[in-house]
Amino acid sequence: MIEDLKEKAKELLTSKKVDVVIGYEAGTYKDYASPSFAKTAKDVDRFVWNKNCVNNLAIYITKAKGKVGIIAKGCDVKSIIGIIQENQINREDVVIIGIACDGVEIDGEKADKCNFCDVHTPKIYDILIGDKIESKESSQDKYKEVAEIENKSPEERWKYWKDTLSKCIRCYACRQVCPLCYCDKCFVDTTVPQWIPMSVNEDNNMMFHMIRAYHMASRCIGCGECQRACPMNIPLNILSKKMTKEVEEMFGYTPGVDIEAKPAIQDFNKKEDPDKEFIM
Q1: Bond prior to 263 in cis (omega within 30° of 0)
Q2: CA neighbours closer than 13 Å in the CB half-sphere of residue 244
Q3: How many CA atoms, within 13 angstroms, populate the side-chain half-sphere of residue 15?
Q4: pLDDT tens digits, residue range 3-44?
Q5: Which of 133, 152, 153, 253 has the maximum number of C-beta atoms within 10 A of its C-beta?
Q6: What local confidence, expressed as pLDDT, does residue 268 receive?
Q7: 47 φ/ψ angles, rounded to the nearest 5 degrees
């Protein structure tokens, strides 16, 4: 599989179809793989593919110059679809080397996102590496953690999030690792006006995470990178899943599935029921 991957990547570079291929190489921490950027066929020799290729490489396509080739798992392709939908890159400017993937591991255990994966074979690709893997509906409830919080009383929910988010040190690792956080200047970095004070405290932390959660509504594909990057082990996926659940129930929209679809929060239909609840 890895040899086939390298061959296809080298072909793209030598034929000048792309200026760079984004993939994985052996990392320096434990057995994890790290992002790798090949601009020549020789660079491709560094590429690896294994269970430790966890990173969602889609974050780099909005930063790369020229035409980009990218090695992408099914979940990563969901992010690429979202980036294309939001006009951050043209479909013709990215060559997707899709990987048929049956799951990746974090600290030797299958990543949580893989327990609910419905895209073992990417939705879209230009080149597919590996045999197609049929996706099966998971017997596990992907919204179980959300339901546990929803079942608490309002006072209990407030205390839970107040205590949980008080651990945040505002390092913004969650923002930096998210493929859909591509803004040149984030709202938290704006000083005129200053939406959120820079100081770290419970109120400011709560404001940052609540606003970010709303920004990700109809956009988060559940890659889990924000939670994985958090040095304080804050369960950020619960917030993201809550917003995804609401959008699915209210608008019947699931992010990263249909490249031709218009994201729910970007769409407006005058014929919609004016009494229908709406996310602002």
Answers
A1: no
A2: 18
A3: 9
A4: 999 999 999 999 999 999 999 999 888 788 999 999 999 999
A5: 253
A6: 65
A7: -60, 145
